[in-house]
Amino acid sequence: MRSLVPPILLICCAIAVFGAQPASADDHLVPSALKTELTVVVGPVAGAPGDGGTSLRHAIQRQLVARGVAVATTFSLPRYRIDGFVTMTEELKGEQAISILWLVTDPQGDRLGTVHQRNNVQKGSLDGQWGIIADQAAEAAVGGIMGLLPPP
Q1: Count of domains in the chain?
Q2: Is residue 20's pLDDT more than 90?
Q3: Smallest Cα–Cα separation from 141: which of 85, 66, 53, 63?
Q4: Residue 136: which of 2, 1, 8, 3 has the closest Cα?
Q5: What counts of helices (H) and strands (E) characterise the chain?
Q6: DSSP string for 57-116
Q7: What is the spatial distance between Cα 77 and Cα 41, in angstroms, rounded to a whole number?
Q8: Is 3 helix (H, G, I), strand (E, B) or coil?
Q9: In this structure, is residue 2 part of a structural domain?
Q10: Is 129 within a domain?
Q11: How far is CA 80 from CA 61, 106, 116, in A?
Q12: Is 33 exposed, middle or buried (0-12, 13-18, 19+ CB in 10 A)?
């Protein structure tokens, strides 16, 4: 029997990153007891079917927080930013190809690099709630994203 949740493949391009901007203490998802200079904001995830935009955004935020990165809930200050872009191909033999591109930029808006994920999924399997699929995609992507950011 074929799994509906195939593993996500990760291809990462990384370039060096220098410096980080501290953010105000009141807009983090990280507890104040955790001292970190690295603060990121996760922008919208565009193009995902179903609740994928919201689910992927929240899942990548949780993965970053678990690795000690402060995640801001506002876009008010210049900070590192992660945006997601999802594309799906037309159905072929009951499957669709999904591509997730995570774009990482520095506080000045300069592109630091991308993390690109590709996989095939059963047609229509992502049209509703993503649930664990979003968590698995975020878990597979976060290592590449962390490689583009300075250490927390």
Answers
A1: 1
A2: no
A3: 63
A4: 8
A5: 2, 6
A6: HHHHHHHHHHTT-EEES---S--EEEEEEEEEPPPBTTEEEEEEEEEEE-TTS-EEEEEE
A7: 10
A8: coil
A9: no
A10: yes
A11: 13, 4, 18
A12: exposed
Going by their DSSP bridges, the two strands 80-88 and 70-72 should be labelled as unpaired
pLDDT exceeds cutoff 90 at 146: yes
CATH number for the domain spanning 30: value is: 3.30.160
Residue 10 token pair: 């990760």
Q: Which domain, by its residues, includes 97?
A: 9-148
Distance (Å, rounded) from C-alpha 116 to C-alpha 20? Answer: 23
Residue given tokens 């993390």 in the structure block: 115
Interval 25-46: pLDDT, tens = 344 554 444 555 789 999 999 9
> Can you read off the two tokens belonging to residue 68?
């000690």
